[in-house]
Each structure stands twice: as structure tokens, then as C-alpha cells.
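Hi X.,

You mentioned you wanted examples for the new student's onboarding notes, showing what a folding record looks like when two proteins sit in one file. Here is a clean example. The first protein comes first, with its sequence line followed by its C-alpha cells.
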Amino acid sequence: MHGPPLAQMAGDPDSRRPREETNVTRDTPRPFPQLQHAAHREFDSWMDARHLEATLDKVRPFVMPPVSVEALVDLANVALMVLACDIPGDFVECGVWRGGTGFLMAEILRGAGVRDRKVWLLDSFEGMPPVEAIDGPRAIADANDPANPLSRHMSKAPLEDVQRTAMELGLAGHTEFVKGWFDQTLRATRDRIGPIAVLHVDCDWHASVRCCLDNLYDQVVEGGFVILDDYYGYDGCAIAVHEFLAERRLAHRIESVVGNWGGCDHNVAARFRKGKANWQWEYRLHLAREDIATVIPPGQPFILVDDGVFGDEIAAGRRATPFLERDGRYWGRPADDATAVHEVERARQSGQSFMVFTWPAFWWLDAYPRLQRYLVAGFRCVLQNDRVVVFDLRA
């Protein structure tokens, strides 16, 4: 989705013709556009598998099957959000196998040109520890199936092999490996690790998950994430998470990562954030501020259509005038199309240079079709994505 389909809604046949490439800011091929501050802002806030195809293809052979594409995409988006919002700390992977998800985070660091963070990859590299009754019947069955990747033999991945793969993928400079059982290495290593932005817990069994949370949670920074790969897969993982949160009296909301299985929604992983809930809204707002700062010059006034939601919170240091406006305050929605067009003209005459529709008010462009036609026919749409639609009113 790149915002409302302006040309389709315009009604004017001329507006359905392909617009010249210079009329809209277009995305150019870049690894992760969320991290770009140039005028290439036409990208969705949350990337999907199509946008991440090259990155996923690079690391997929090293992810333990069955591969959940949705879980990989979610991990990538969380890492990108951390970088875009400058949440401090390294990335930590507990449970590495052949390196796939750790390499995914390292590839994001590499593609973003980040040199002051790394991915810590912690594993025994000797296979899974013994399963216990608390891990549940499915875990016991998987651990005792010689053909299952989680069996002791199949889960072995020698450290030297994983390090060699990191070198071949060009990721050695973004990774640091720690070999050993968690109950022996985490306490000894955590001071070296320091602040953690993303803690990816992918170690399946109750004892391992609990050890990771007990030893590393306190280093997850405010705004950082704990991702629980096996929360829906194995009873022991879910029990460990809820035990830990209850004992610490922590009120973190568990968020589901949802995929699709046989045409139905299927929970593939879980996560919680150490900080504000509903962080997707905060992330989109952050990117929208960047959008506005990119296309509207400093000091230029603009009309803000936000349904009264944001106000100066989204203005990025520019001068935002609410629409409709009376005495500098939001005055509500236009009574009709004629009022909407008249108010835009009045605002232009008073010196407003741009008009910004934010995503809570995208429906205006459908509800006021004459306003939409007026803007499309008379002014350049300089940016359109899933957060903002911006018109340059200086024509």
C-alpha cells in the first residue's frame, strides 16, 4: 500500500493518465529505505517478504526448518525499526544453529552501513540440551525423532562451520560468537555484550529460555525488544516466559507474529517490547516526521489534514496549520466539498505552501471527491506512501 490511489479516485479522465516521474518522489533501489534521509520516501512503513526477498534468499539456507517467512520478516522489521528510531544496543541471538536468523540481523546492519553495533550469536554448537517433561509432548516427540532438526544429532552445527558461513556471506565483521551452554556462558558474557536492543530467544526448551531471560533481560534497553521464536511451538517456552514475567511483576504485553497456514491465520512467534505498547503507531509517526522534513523546506508553512490527531507532534519543526482552522486551532471537518476547496484557497492566499494528508485522514480524499480532483488537477503530489500524501501548493 502506498496511500490512497489518487488517480483512481480523481474521476477526471486526465488524472488517470500516468503522471510524469518527476511529479512524485519515487523510491530507488536501496537496501533499507527506512534508514535513508534522502528524498526517496515512497515506501511502506512495514516491509513484506517481497521487499526483503534478496536478504531472505541470502540467509534462508541457514535457518532451521520449517522456515517461517513471516517470523523472518517480522524480525527484519523490528531490527529496522530499532535502527530507524536510534534505539541503542546490540542484537543478541540465543540459539543459533547454522546462523540463519542471526545472519539476517547482521545483513541488516551490513546493508545499513552500521559499524557501531554487532550481532552476538550464543549457542553450544553441540546440539540441543535434553528435553524435559515441562517442555510438553510435542517437544518430547520432536527431540526423540531422529529425522527432526531438533533431535540431538540433527541440531548440531559446528562453530567453525557457522563462522565460515559468516565469512562467506560477508558478515564476519558484524558478528561475534560465544560457544557454550547458556548456564555457563551468559553470566560470564553479559557484561561484554552491554546494552541490548533486540534479544532474539530461539532456544525452544523451558530451561534454556528461562536462563536467557534471567541473565539478559535487564540489559534490554527501554524501547528494546524480546522476540520469542518458540512461544507458540513448545509449552516449555511459553511457561518460561510467563513464569519470568510473573516473578518480576512485569506487565509486558505479548504480541503475536501471525503467518498463514492452509488459508488461516497461524501464530508463528511472539514478542514484547520493553517500553510503550502500540509501538507500530509510534514508528509510523516517526517515519512520517521524516517524510515531512524531507519534502517541506524548513520554515515553510503547510496545511495539516490529520483529523485532529497529531497537531504539532508531526510537524518536524515546520509550521503546521490544522485543516479546518480557526484562530490557529483545529475546527473540525468541512461541511462539504465546496467548503473544503474554498478553505484550501483561503489558506494558499495566506501563504500556506504545502498540504499534508496523514494516514488517519486518508479517508478525506474519498469523502471529498471534488477536493481530491482539485488537488490532483492543480498541484504536484510530491510524496505518497502509507503515512502521508503531500501536495505542493506553490504552483
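Then the second protein repeats the pattern, sequence line and then C-alpha cells:
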Amino acid sequence: MAINCNKRFKYFDRLLFVRQSVCPGQCNLSIKPLFQTGCFCAYAHIHCNSSSNLEVLQPSIFSTRLTYLEIDHCDLPNGIPDGIIAPFTSLFALRILFSNMTTYNSPNLPSTLTFLEIRYSQLQTVPNVIAATLPPQLIYLALDGNYIHDIPISTLQSWKQLNVLHLSETQIGDTTFDNIVQTLPSLNELSLHHTNITKIPPRLIEMSAVQTVFLSSNQIQGVVPVGVSGFIDLSCNPLVVLSGLPSAVTFDNSLLYCSGNQCSPRLLANNLCDVPCNLAKFGWDNGACASYNG
């Protein structure tokens, strides 16, 4: 028997309508399971200000099915308290931006976590919560915008499961860069723009899995390297170009991008809020910083 699709969709429209409930304003995306009422938030963005803080993050309000949590401008000197994050047992992604975090000594993060960002904090060392072990499914780690100057070898060895590592806008130097390349040869993406790097480790060329390397706005000198298997951004570095650049190399030293804060054009396309690009002339990082300004 043929199914009348129009009638079926009209039925589901009515069903969804009677199940709808209002999620809090901090819920940017919700799911609506059949025959269940209440808010089932999938993506929550908590922007702390005088009228909102982490106390609103309750499983009774957002449900325990929360999978993507973004937090910015919150008072988190010691990281997110365990009691707040523990109920969300399906958490896939956690983003903490523009915090006063100096430590994060929680005994563990959710085992379901695949994506972790702690960007623009007051960290001076890798926080204990990820210094010796990572959640078993974590493959993306970003620790950008802090005062970290070194990553111990033992920590790097515990990060071998990572596909993506971002340590941009930190105090990382040549020794740590070399250790990363040597210890984590299977990385797909590495971001070290705006650090203290002055040279490129020869072994970078041997990283066959690497697809993208961001090294703009450093003090890398010499000749633009060739032979890297993936894309590499070397903009805003005092390098010398001897001949035509390989298509995989971006090298833009124009005043537009390399004066003042220095914002490589590639950073404008990475869909992340990068503080050096958070300027009116760059459209507040092509809009990536808009939700954090104000």
C-alpha cells in the first residue's frame, strides 16, 4: 500500500508541535525525541556576565544529553567544578574560552570527550587534567592563548592519540616544536602561530599524515622550505623566497596582514576566534569573534 507522504509529514509536524518546550536562551541547538517532553539541549553556549554564570548549567534544565558545551568569559581559576560537568555523560565537545584559568586539577574529564579547547586562559603549564592522560576518545586538543612555554616529553607521549594539536599564541619555542614533531608524527594538523619558534625541524617533512601546519607570525628565518606533505602557512616570518613557492605553502608578508597584531589570511578562514584577527579591518576575524565581543 502506498504511503501518503504529505499526510505523514503533517502528522509529525503536529506531534513535534505538541512536544515543543522552551529551552533556555543558552541552548543554541536542541533535539526533540518522540513522545518525550522537556528541553533536550544538544549544544549550549554559556556566556558569563553580570546576569549569567555557570549556575544555570543544570541537567534538569538542559538534560543530560548535552553533547557540545561552550563556555566563555567565566570565572574558572581552577577549571570547571566536577559537580557541574559530571552529569553530562554524553559530552562530545568542550570549549572554554577567555577564562582566568590557572589550573585544572579535576580527576577526570568525561570519557566521551573527543574535542577539547581551552583557549585564552592564564595557564602557565599544561593543566593536570590532561598532563598525564587523555579521555580515551579525545583526538582534538587546543591550548591556545596562554603562557605555556614547554610541554614535557612525558606529556607529549601521553598525547599520541591526537590528530589535531593547537598551541598557538603561547611561549612555545624550538625545543618543544622539535619534540612535538618527533613524538607525535601522526598528527593531521598542528597550529603554532604567534609563538617563539625560529626554525622548522627537519623531521616535519617526514610527517606523512600531516595535512595542515600553521606557523605564521613567528621568527622563522632562512629559506622557505619545500617538501612538506601538507599545507603550511608561513606568513609574517622573516623568510627568504628563492624561487616560486609550492602550492601548499602560504607566505604573505604584506603590511595588511603582517603589521600590528599580525593576522595571516589563513587565520581568517579557520573558523576560530583568533585574538590577533579580532579587529574591525578583518571583520572581527570574519565574524568568528562576534559572539565573544561584548
